[in-house]
Amino acid sequence: MAGFSRSDFTLEGFRRQLANVDALPQLCVLGLVSGVMTGAVMVGFRLLLEAGAALYMPNGNPEGFEALPPWVRALLPLLAVSVIGVLLYRQKATARKLGVGHVIERLTYHQGRFPLRNWLNQWWVGVVSVLGGLSAGREGPAIHLGAAASSGLGMRLRLPHNSLRVLVACGTAAGISASFNTPIAGVIFAMEVVMMEYTLMSFMPVILASTMGALVAQLAYGNEPAFRIPEVALGSLMNLPWIVVTGLVIGLMAGVFIHLARHAFLQGLPLWLRLGSVGVATGALAWWFPEIQGIGYDSLAAALNNQLTVSVLLALMIGKLLITALTVAGGVPIGIIGPVLVSGAATGALAGMLGGWLWPDKAADPGIYAMLGMAAMMGAVLQAPLAALMALLELTHIPHMMLPGMLAVVVACLTSRQLTGCEGFFVSSVRYGMHPLQQPLMQALSRVSVPAVMERSLVRTERMITLEQARQRLETNPTWLVIERSSDDKPVLGLKAAELARWLLEHDEALKEGAAQEEELIDLLEIPGQRLEMAPIGLQATLSEAFLKLQDNTLDALYVIHGYRPKQQRISGIITRGAIERYYHYTDTRHSDPRDPTVSQ
Asked: Which pLDDT band, with edges at 50, 70 and 90, does 371 fall under?
């Protein structure tokens, strides 16, 4: 086959191709595999929920809390927080990080590598929190399980870290897609909330993963939409001002939710008091309003179809939102997307009822406001307007809801950000500057691994060599000489081979004149030339990792090590600060608007 060598079809060749920024076909293959894997994981998680519900829930329904006796549903949250407190909080603090926030943290600071213990914890914590009657969703666990499983595949195959980042996005999108049967919303959520960027190289693999995740879920659960909603229409445009007011209220509620969930005072209380408060508060409210327990999709469907009373809607609007925030602040790692959707839908339904009371001839159906409230609350809490709009479209299957939906979502997002100072539930702002994933330089350098730009032409050598050995080192016309020192505490040095070649030319003239001897030793630290102190970096690392290592250690170059056992490691190349800068400026010139200022550091 023209243009391909046999090595391109080996695993090593696959890794080498993935290191480049234009490895689109290889990333698409990974997207397909990731989507199938995440879809299967999500089906397994839902089956685990159903198996647990079959033990004590009426009709085996994971959301059937309304049919339980009041004392049982009030006791369940206390039991759930006790189990989580005993089993989870006996582990190290790093093992207790779960959910979407953990996914973003691993992507930001660990190049998308996930610990196995956290992944295993997410299975049982997700099941206990939902079946234990806490106000918790299944989307957070789905995203964590899918992203970590996809990343684990890449780690198992020892793929470069730039491809791990794409695999995390693929697992995230497929997790949302399989959970809601919303493939487009899954893609947008992954790019907008987790990756925080939109690039062609990421979009296409993520689209494939989201598609496959939805297909696997549909094979198990059918192709029915998540909610059955009657065909409705907005009617009079006089509803638009009231939609603006509804979006304003929801934006304020989203801000209160985020501030309460992240409140330093609540998080600083003793563990027993935090967990006890979560269990008691949830159980007390569930005694009268069991609708606030669990994910709440049954209550969401009822709100969309105008089947809930005002008292229940108020409990979902205020009680479920506050209980969810208290649960997060109390240290219970739960999924918040489902509860946020339910609370937003209840708020919208109440706004629709109030509008119908104020002007009965012009007001739209409360179910419409419930749809808009659902999307507005999701957009405001996550600061993800596009993902919220796509969720609105795919969950309702009513395209003409997009116009009022855009208005409600934008107003809610602006209110939450500008009036309450919230920048999204999952992304905490850095005191100075942007979140690392939002920095253009770090984004660009994270898309490619060091093999794509490293200099491979090198020769390893000792510090002291003879003239004959020096000539042998230069026979292959290397670019770099890697000088290895005898002491482990001394850094490896890099010397341009041209410097040694120039010195040899001058020395050959001295030999002809009789001023030098052929057998004398050359000290490569003494010949004229610039020597760069170098630190090691792995072959799988991205350019962003290399750039940060150069910055932190005030170095100008790194040597790239290849091999997974210390005694078998070899040096595969050298990457300099100049090579990274040239790559960034080259891609910036190719892909950016020349009118935009170039980011430089």
From this structure: very high
Helix-helix angle 116-131:70-87, to 10 degrees: 170
Looking at this protein, which amino acid is placed at residue 276? G
What pLDDT score was predicted for residue 586?
Answer: 63
Contacts of 9-18 with CB under 8 Å at 24 or more apart are: 11/157, 14/159, 15/157, 15/158, 15/159, 15/160, 16/451, 18/159, 18/160, 18/162, 18/163, 18/449
- Look at residues 202, 147, 135, 134 and name the one whose alpha carbon lies nearest to residue 179: 147
Tokens of 63: 């959301």
* DSSP class per residue in 552-587: HHT-SEEEEEE-SSGGG-EEEEEEEHHHHHHHHHHH
Q: Token match 């209550």: residue?
A: 299
Closest C-alpha among 526, 534, 387 to residue 450: 534
Helix axis angle for 337-358 and 366-382, nearest 10°, is 140
Distances (CA, A) of 403 to 63, 342, 392, 397, 400: 32, 21, 11, 14, 6
- What does the block give as tokens for 502? 């120039």
CA distance 351 to 344: 11
214 in Cβ contact with 177 (< 8 Å) = yes
Strands 480-484 and 458-462: parallel
Alpha-carbon span 574 to 4, nearest angstrom:
26
* CB neighbours of residue 96 within 10 Å: 18
In angstroms, what CA-CA distances link 453 with 107, 428, 460, 576? 22, 33, 19, 9
Cα dist. 463→37, 180, 466, 536 in Å? 51, 62, 10, 18
Residue 8 is classified by DSSP as G
* pTM summary value: 0.82
Between CA 68 and CA 318 the distance in angstroms is 23
- In this predicted structure, what is the pLDDT of residue 593? 46
Angstrom distance (rounded) from CA 32 to CA 250: 37
Integer Cα distance of 224 and 439 in angstroms: 40
Count the residues in the chain: 601
Residue position matching structure tokens 């800068």: 581
Phi, psi angles (nearest 5°) of residue 12: -65, -40
Q: Which of 78-82, 335-339, 454-458 has the lowest mean pLDDT?
A: 454-458
| Backbone torsions φ then ψ of 459, nearest 5 degrees | -135, 130
Q: In the chain, what is the greatest distance between 2 CA atoms, to the nearest angstrom?
A: 110
Q: Can you tell me the distance from the alpha carbon of 61 to that of 67, in angstroms, rounded to the nearest whole number?
A: 10
Q: Give CA separation, 70 vs 1, 288, 338, in Å.
A: 70, 8, 23
Mean of the per-residue pLDDT values of the chain: 84
The secondary structure of residue 318, as a DSSP letter, is: I
The SS3 of residue 335 is strand
Strand partners, 575: 558
How many whole angstroms separate alpha carbon 582 and alpha carbon 586?
6
The residues, any chain, with a CB within 8 Å of residue 552's CB and separated by 6 or more, are none
Give the whole-angstrom CA distance, residue 325 versus residue 523. Answer: 66
